Amino acid sequence: MNTADFMTAGYLIFLFIGFALWFATRDNKHPNMASLGQMMEGILHNRATRLGLGIFWWWLGWHFLVSIIGR
Amino acid sequence: MSNTRRFPISLWVIAFGLCSALQIFRGSIGDEIIFLTATAIILSSTTIFRKLKSPFELNDQDRGLEITGLFVWAILVFIPRHTFFEGAAIVIIGLLALPSFWGKVAFNRKPLPKREKNARLMWSIWAIVVCLWEFAANILGQLDNSHHAFPTISILVDPVLDSMVGKAGFVLSWVAIGFGLLRQGSKHK
């Protein structure tokens, strides 16, 4: 396994973990853990969180659709 | 990543400040300007401009947002990437969305329930680990002078977006996430 495979495997593992976390909590019935949607509804009460997530979301669009990637 | 009135300077300021520092290392002037501007906007939003309210009020029941989302998706898919028009479209979307993200209320009125705090901690840890992996790939790639030996998410995803299907899928996901953020955010006026 070379470094590129190692790094790519890391991303795939994180993606899988993220999906598993979402799947395990999606019905919002766990006694100690809210679902992703429920949590988002709560944290978006804060302006800084709305702006932080919103600007990061916007930047992803800019980065992948407008910027030349490869640096 | 959020705070109550006790801590008016959000952790988002630190996160965007660190991203700004990384852009200096990457040598990306455009992204540097974006992240520094974002840091200033977020910092001011809970300090000197915390009482400033957005003049726009997005109605979370308004069906027009779905139609706008479909329209935006179609436009972004058919405009070629890396062009002036794609850039202009993204800038316009950002300028239109920003007041809705700003909203009317700067801080939580009540603390998060324990379940939501736990979920916030769990997802924050996940996001930080992913960011550290991405930062490591970026830094090691710069030092090694080879982006393909230590690929970032951008390097891996970029070729997929060269196809129409890949781009359509990405734009659909991007618009859907933005739609969700705007819809959820509009509930907190």
Task: Give the SSE map.
The complex is a heterodimer of chains A (about 70) and B (about 190).
Chain A: H1 3-25, H2 36-43, H3 47-65
Chain B: H1 11-26, H2 29-45, H3 64-78, H4 84-102, H5 114-144, H6 153-157, H7 164-185
Structural class of chain B: mainly alpha
Poorly predicted tracts of residues of chain A: none
Counting H and I runs of at least 4 residues, what is the number of helices of chain B?
A: 7
Secondary structure: helix percent of chain A: over 70%
Mean pLDDT metric of chain B: 88
- Number of DSSP helical runs of chain A: 3
Apparent shape of chain B? globular
Explained architecture:
The complex is a heterodimer of chains A (71) and B (189). Chain A has 71 residues and is an all-alpha fold. In chain A, 70% of the residues lie in helices and 0% in strands. Chain A starts with a helix and ends in a 6-residue tail after the last helix. The model of chain A has no long low-confidence stretch (mean pLDDT 93). Chain B has 189 residues and is mostly helical. Chain B has helices at residues 11-26, 29-45, 64-78, 84-102, 114-144, 153-157, 164-185. In chain B, α1 (11-26) packs antiparallel against α2 (29-45) and α3 (64-78) runs antiparallel to α7. Chain B is globular. The interface between A and B is large, with 52 and 81 residues.
